[in-house]
Design goal:
By secondary structure, the protein is an alpha/beta fold. It has one domain: Glutaredoxin, CATH 3.40.30. It is built from 6 helices and 5 strands, in the order αααβαβαβαββ. A 5-stranded mixed beta sheet has the order 1-3-2-4-5, with helices on both faces.
Length: 140
């Protein structure tokens, strides 16, 4: 009988403390991140932006606000990888790439920060909570 009890749903507490049903797990979105890890990629991003929108998300892995904004961005992201290229930049691990991104695209560094690039230039950018206000659909 104890095995039957273990298999039964745990009710409210099961959902609150980690119990998830299979449907919730299969519906989880996967954001098509491309790791931005080298300086060479910046020139490629600039070139590719003439044909397809390029987006860079600069993320500080040690910052709670950056983590919160990243989670919010991930949960609200509703585009597919054919619509734009989405780069993830861990600015602590790749500080030189982060610095060069600011110089290359003429944007003052902030964290977290989202840059939208078309035709070689940043057409919009935002940091912190303002990232959620950018409608990426407008730049496709």
């Amino acid at each position: 009988m104890s095995s039957q009890l273990e298999k039964q749903p745990m009710g409210v507490f099961g959902n609150l403390f980690g119990g998830k049903n299979q449907k919730e797990e299969t519906e989880k979105k996967v954001v098509p991140w491309i790791p931005l890890t080298s300086l060479d990629q910046l020139k490629g991003i600039e070139q590719k932006s003439s044909a397809k929108t390029q987006v860079i998300f600069k993320h500080s892995t040690s910052c709670g606000i950056s983590r919160m904004v990243m989670n919010m961005f991930n949960s609200n992201y509703d585009l597919n990888e054919n619509q734009l290229d989405l780069y993830y930049l861990d600015l602590q691990a790749y500080r030189d790439v982060s610095n060069e991104t600011g110089y290359h695209f003429q944007i003052i560094h902030q964290s977290p920060q989202l840059l939208v690039i078309r035709n070689g230039v940043v057409v919009t950018h935002a940091s912190h909570g303002a990232i959620a206000e950018i409608d990426l659909q407008k730049y496709i």
